[in-house]
Specification:
single chain, alpha/beta, 3-stranded antiparallel sheet, disordered C terminus
C-alpha cells in the first residue's frame, strides 16, 4: 500500500469526480483509476461504486477514506515535526473562519507569520460553522475561528473574544436613529434589513436575540458575505446588524452610522477550534500557543471590549 493510493482515494471522495480528482493530484485519470483498483485488490473490498461515472463510495470505502485521511494527516504532521526540529516551523497553515470572524483572523495571522517566517498562511473566510468542523475532521484545514457555544466533543477550543452587535445604517435619518446613541432590536426589525442567510450561525444568533426581544425581522436581502452587507448599506436603501469587531478592524465607512444595540444584550464567544488529537500537528499547536500569548489575548480583549462609535 502506497501513500499515493490513499491520496487518490481521498481526492476522489473530495471531488466526487474521477477527472477532477486526477487533475487535483496532477496525474491522468487512468493512472488514478488504476491506483485505486490496485488498492481495492490489496484490501480485498470494493471502495468505489462505478457506473458510467462516479456514483460514490461503497460503505467500506466510506470507512476506509476516513482512515486514509488520518494516515495522510499523520504523515504530514510527522514531516512538519521533523522540519520544525531541523529548520523551524515551515509549510502552510490553513485556517477556516466564519464570515463574521474573518476580520479578527488578522489578529492571529500577523503575529504568527512574524514568529514563524517560513510558514505561509491560507485563510478561507466564508465558511459556515458546520463546514469548519467538517473540514477539521477531514484534515482540510488546521484550525478554525468560529462560534464556540455549539462546538461538540472531539475538538479543542481557545476563546478569543465576545461578539457584540451594532446597527449599521446610512447617515441619513432612519426613523430618528441618527440622533440616538443606541437602538432596540424591535426598532431594527422594522427597518429595511439586509442580513446574513439563515444557514449562517451568525444569522441564527441574531434570530435568537430578535425572538428574545419579541421582534420578527423580515430581511429583503440575504447574503453569506459581511462585505456584501456593507455594500448594500452603502447604497442608502438598507440597514444591517454586524459584529462590532468588524468596525474595530475597518472603522465606520464614510456615509454610514453605527448604533450600538440595546438590550437584550448578547455577547457570543468566538474562538479558535482545533481537532482534539494527541499529539496535535505542529502547525495547530503553534497557532494555539500563539493565541494564548499576552499580546494576542490583549488584542482580542480590545476587539471585544471597545464600544462601536456612535458617529
Amino acid at each position: 500500500m502506497l501513500f499515493r493510493q490513499l491520496e487518490y482515494l481521498v481526492a476522489l471522495a473530495r471531488e466526487r469526480h474521477f477527472a477532477r480528482a486526477a487533475q487535483s493530484c496532477y496525474v491522468s485519470q487512468p493512472a488514478l483509476s488504476e491506483a485505486i483498483r490496485k488498492l481495492e485488490d490489496e484490501l480485498g473490498v470494493s471502495l468505489v461504486r462505478r457506473g458510467r461515472s462516479y456514483e460514490g463510495l461503497t460503505p467500506e470505502g466510506e470507512r476506509i477514506v476516513v482512515r486514509a485521511q488520518r494516515i495522510l494527516a499523520d504523515r504530514d504532521a510527522l514531516k512538519s515535526e521533523v522540519d520544525a526540529l531541523r529548520t523551524g516551523l515551515s509549510g502552510r497553515l490553513r485556517i477556516g473562519a466564519v464570515p463574521t470572524a474573518s476580520g479578527a483572523v488578522a489578529q492571529l495571522t500577523g503575529p504568527f507569520c512574524a514568529r514563524h517566517p517560513l510558514v505561509t498562511v491560507e485563510v478561507a473566510a466564508d465558511l459556515r460553522s458546520d463546514d469548519i468542523l467538517r473540514q477539521l475532521q477531514t484534515f482540510e484545514i488546521d484550525a478554525g475561528v468560529t462560534y464556540l457555544h455549539r462546538v461538540p466533543e472531539g475538538f479543542r477550543t481557545v476563546p478569543l473574544y465576545q461578539e457584540r452587535y451594532v446597527l449599521l445604517t446610512d447617515d441619513a435619518d432612519a426613523d430618528g436613529l441618527d440622533r440616538r446613541t443606541e437602538a432596540t432590536w424591535a426598532e431594527a426589525s422594522r427597518l429595511p434589513l439586509c442580513l446574513l442567510t439563515e444557514a449562517m450561525q451568525g444569522r441564527q444568533v441574531l434570530q435568537e436575540v430578535f425572538a428574545e426581544a419579541g421582534a420578527r425581522p423580515s430581511p429583503r436581502v440575504e447574503t453569506d458575505s459581511v462585505a456584501a452587507l456593507f455594500a448594500h448599506v452603502r447604497t442608502g436603501r438598507w440597514a444591517t446588524i454586524v459584529p462590532s469587531a468588524w468596525l474595530n478592524v475597518f472603522g465606520v465607512p464614510n456615509g454610514m452610522r453605527a448604533v450600538p444595540m440595546a438590550g437584550p444584550s448578547r455577547a457570543v464567544p468566538v474562538g479558535l477550534v482545533t481537532l482534539a488529537r494527541d499529539p496535535g500537528p505542529a502547525m495547530a499547536r503553534a497557532l494555539v500557543e500563539l493565541a494564548r500569548t499576552p499580546g494576542v489575548t490583549a488584542a482580542f480583549a480590545r476587539l471585544s471590549g471597545a464600544a462601536a462609535p456612535a458617529d
